Amino acid sequence: MAKQTGRSGRFARGGANRPRIKEPIQKRSRETRRKILDAAADLFSEMGFDRATTTLIAKRAGFSIGSIYAHFPNKRDMFLTVLDEYLERTFSYLRVGIDRLIAQKHESGIDDVAGAIEWLAVGLHEANKPNAKLNWEMFRFILMDEEADAIHARWEQKENAEIVRLMTVFKDRIKVRDIEAAAIVIHRATHEVFQYLTKNKGEVDEQAVLSEFAAMLKSYVAK
Amino acid sequence: MAKQTGRSGRFARGGANRPRIKEPIQKRSRETRRKILDAAADLFSEMGFDRATTTLIAKRAGFSIGSIYAHFPNKRDMFLTVLDEYLERTFSYLRVGIDRLIAQKHESGIDDVAGAIEWLAVGLHEANKPNAKLNWEMFRFILMDEEADAIHARWEQKENAEIVRLMTVFKDRIKVRDIEAAAIVIHRATHEVFQYLTKNKGEVDEQAVLSEFAAMLKSYVAK
Amino acid sequence: MAKQTGRSGRFARGGANRPRIKEPIQKRSRETRRKILDAAADLFSEMGFDRATTTLIAKRAGFSIGSIYAHFPNKRDMFLTVLDEYLERTFSYLRVGIDRLIAQKHESGIDDVAGAIEWLAVGLHEANKPNAKLNWEMFRFILMDEEADAIHARWEQKENAEIVRLMTVFKDRIKVRDIEAAAIVIHRATHEVFQYLTKNKGEVDEQAVLSEFAAMLKSYVAK
Amino acid sequence: MAKQTGRSGRFARGGANRPRIKEPIQKRSRETRRKILDAAADLFSEMGFDRATTTLIAKRAGFSIGSIYAHFPNKRDMFLTVLDEYLERTFSYLRVGIDRLIAQKHESGIDDVAGAIEWLAVGLHEANKPNAKLNWEMFRFILMDEEADAIHARWEQKENAEIVRLMTVFKDRIKVRDIEAAAIVIHRATHEVFQYLTKNKGEVDEQAVLSEFAAMLKSYVAK
DNA sequence: GATGAATGAGTATTCATTCAT
DNA sequence: GATGAATGAATACTCATTCAT
Fold it and tell me: ∠ CA(D11), CA(D14), CA(D16), 5° rounding?
């Protein structure tokens, strides 16, 4: 008969001041958190935010619902964390690659603009592949959730900055006037082409599109 | 003796044969249908498919829920119709523009490749503006619903074909090798840049980005 | 971002493979399940399947709607379970009674055919009394739901078999030729007379009808 | 935009004072009414009261919903009328048959009790066949609607009276003591056996069951 | 710390009935 | 007299979240 108070209603929409549960210090706890985040990331990307129910996430992670709520205040927060981690990973990939390109230039003394652009086009595609589906869910969320938007904006700016950094290094070999704007254009165009390839995997000649895309970037950027 | 309602799970995956309620012939009915579709398109783009509840749509359209269901078998179908109409409008804009560009070329005898590309970059942006937000919802839906995917694929192909048509006319003034792949690249890149501008309206220098984008297309396409 | 509910049409016709939620092992859970089933049985028999809304059942059971759905996948399944349990109870009553009649015969060595028939007529009436109203709802459901039909058919066959078993024991004292057909006739006739009495309780002379009915059975069966 | 008042909620449950729309005198109107009733009877028996929606009935009858409501105040009333007509038809069949049996006895001077009973068992089965499914719906309705119950009770009494009349004529050749109670028993047993045969059509040996049933009645009734 | 039973507001959809045209 | 567009209360079912054990 035991009636319980029960709570309902969706999560608060706006909210920038998410009282994020602090990263646990205990090792076991940290591992639990990790397993939950991995399960959540999988499910969010497989079936989207809504269809990835907390029950499902708990099951996939191998814990009870209660445990989920011991580690995250709510589902939205889990998504935000997954989002943040994912964007950080992608950014890292980009930064490491650009570091390498710049180092190569300094070491070899050769201005391989074409090679750098090739890497941007092909390499970034690789970086994005694993979580391609998550992308869609991310962007949708970003449109509806201020904090997600803020998180995304932060990483996007950093990515743009990296591309600007790369272009600045090759400044003399480049014909672009407004590097800032160009970085945005390149960044965005890249993204969409990747998404297109992911969505139509197997139905489009990936090589042809990618090489055509690289050609476009080269003819645009390289002197 | 009462009614018995149930539940149908999420977007039905299969169904290519949506038993679309036939377009009404009566004038009053046609107007109602239009009002509902307009309200639905608004709400879908404002708040996404899920949050745009049927109750909300009905209220916005100025009718009762029952009326919604007299005109559409279910919410998904409404979305599909909105999607189809939106894509058709965008396609028409593109086609009309390309018709005009080609006519101008024939009449003037001048190969204004740059002007044509400029139009692609700027004009399409205009075409997309009104329902920019709907785009995201569309793409998400497309990932989860076979029929939405089919509808989208149909219009996308037609749009690609138009761009190919345009490029073919200017064939001699163009340095692109694989016109098919190039059309895809241009089409996709265009899309994303537009979406970026919509999302960051007011925060980015739209003119700079657009002109940089046009520059990229020109340097890529024009001989 | 909200949930999305749908509609499932009426009783699904097909499905013999009802994914019955497994009988709970936890004690609390088992008790909850029982309370829900009892409430459901009450309401189904009081007001029929349709008018017994899930909300009403939950209220009567003293739980929330959510709990109902934690224990049963849907309302139909609850009915099917109630049906199965009810038929099992009735069958048990019949079997125990027949066991006793047969044991008596063996112990006493007397062939009290009349007494056995009397029991069939009167005793079965007692067995059916508690859920008499449920009967009607059952039969209606059976006409519309394949699985309900299968469940009912299974128990009916077992009941027929019991009657055949009884008659076989008294074979020598019986003038019936086709025992199988006779069992059906007796079984069915019995049922309807009971239902009539239940429905017209207080308006008909129950004793007179029952004794007349027993007389009919006796004159038909006993040599 | 035109909001209309709309009405909803189910029909009043209790209500014995149904303001029955008077039988129309105009010929066209009478024909319309008949077509509606026929369509309704078909659908009620095919799919039950609830699933036979007014829209469906209108469509089947070849009229608009509005017309339905010009002839009947509500759906329940339609059912009640269908019920009444059906029970009247069945009763007539019984009365005519019994008239014939009695006439035969007077003409021939022979007391063919066995033949009379045979007719009761087999003939009534024939009479019930066409609307067998309606039977179930009827009985369900009768349990939930006072007026339906009253209508049914009226015809049932008249049928019982007919059986009593028949038995009284054959009084001397009959061993039954309480003719009233016997009539009920015979009547009810008959009903259920018919229903059983209808439900299990094709799976049971109809002849065997019917002849066994007739045998039961004979051994019970005939001296 | 962990568990999972319980909560209940929220959502899509149906259908008898009304009434303006 | 007929039509059928419009109404809206009613109903099954979901799922984020709580909290007693």
Answer: 105
- Cβ distance D10 to B4 less than 8 Å, yes or no, reads no
Mean pLDDT of A178-202: 85
Q: What is the 3-state secondary structure (H, E, C) of B110-155?
A: CCCHHHHHHHHHHHHHHHHHHHHHHHHHHHHHHHHCHHHHHHHHHH
Tell me the pTM. 0.82
Quote the distance between the C-alpha of residue D70 and its chain's center: 26
Q: How far is the CA of B214 from the C1' of E16 (A)?
A: 60
Query: Residues D65, D55: contact at Cβ < 8 Å?
Result: yes
The pLDDT value given to residue D140: 77
Question: Which carries the bigger pLDDT value, residue B91 or residue C19?
Answer: B91
> CA angle at residue D152 from D151 to D156, to 5 degrees?
125
Residue D174, classed as helix, strand or coil, is strand
DSSP D175-207: --S-HHHHHHHHHHHHHHHHHHHHHTTTTS-HH
- Domains of chain C in start order, with CATH, are 5-71 (1.10.10.60), 75-221 (1.10.357.10)
The dihedral region occupied by B145, where left means phi > 0, alpha psi between -120 and 50, and beta the remainder, is beta
Q: Which residues pair with A222 in a beta bridge?
A: A174
D109: left (phi over 0), alpha (psi -120 to 50) or beta: left
How many residues are listed for chain D in this entry?
A: 223
Q: What whole-number distance in Å separates Cα of residue A153 and Cα of residue B204? A: 12
Neighbours of A146 (CB within 10 A): 12
For the record, the structure tokens of A25 come out as 């210090």
Amino acid at C83: L
Instruction: Return the pLDDT at A20.
Output: 52
Q: Which of B140, B142, B188 sits opposite A140 (nearest CB)?
A: B140
D133 touches chain C (CB under 8 A): yes
What residue ranges in D67-111 does DSSP mark as E strands? none
Residue with tokens 């007529």: C121
> Confidence band (pLDDT; 50, 70, 90) for C97?
very high
Please tell me which of the candidates D6, D50, D144 has its beta carbon nearest to residue B3.
Answer: D50
- What CA–CA distance (Å, rounded) separates C107 from D108? 54
Nearest CA in chain D to C10: D51
Place of tokens 């399944």: C77
Q: Are C50 and B2 in contact (CB under 8 A)?
A: yes
CB contact under 8 A, D6 and B64: yes
In the block, tokens 């014909």 appear at A175
Which of A145, A151, A152 lies closest to A13, judged by CA? Answer: A145
**What is each CA distance from C183 to B155, C150, C220, D35, D209, in whole angstroms?**
68, 20, 12, 43, 9
Evaluate if residue B215 carries a pLDDT over 60: yes
User: Which of A61, A53, A57 is CA-nearest to residue A32?
Assistant: A61
Give residue-wise pLDDT tens across range C42-52.
Answer: 999 888 898 89
CA distances from C145 to A102, C131, C137 (A): 72, 20, 12
Vertex B121 angle, CA B115 and B123, to 5°: 85
Q: What is the maximum alpha-carbon separation in chain B?
A: 76
- CB-based contact B64 D10, cutoff 8 Å: no
CA distance linking residue C44 with residue C37, whole number of Å: 10
- Please write the tens of the pLDDT for every residue from D29-81: 788 999 999 999 999 988 888 889 999 999 999 999 999 999 999 999 999 99
Buried b (16+ CB within 10 A) or exposed e, B126-149: ebbeebbbbbbbbbbbbebbebbe
To the nearest whole Å, the CA of D105 is away from the closest chain C CA by 25
